[in-house]
Design brief:
Elements: H1 12-30, H2 32-35, H3 39-74
Length: about 80
Amino acid sequence: MRDLPLALSEGTVRALLALIVGVIGLPLLLFSKTLGLTDAIAGYVNGIVTGSFSFYLGTRSTGADEQIARRATEQ
């Protein structure tokens, strides 16, 4: 565990960043008309939310193979 960033398990930092973006970005996107945000700002928020979730889910789908290979080489 000491070799990992911030001494956290793998994927924790990535998951926290995706959670923060989701908790802040999704309400901004849903209530953009109420908050008076322009369409350009809503588009930027949409791109950030979509990009962060797709990156997180994309790395999670390929992460299993890397973990298996890493554990095999460690043993």
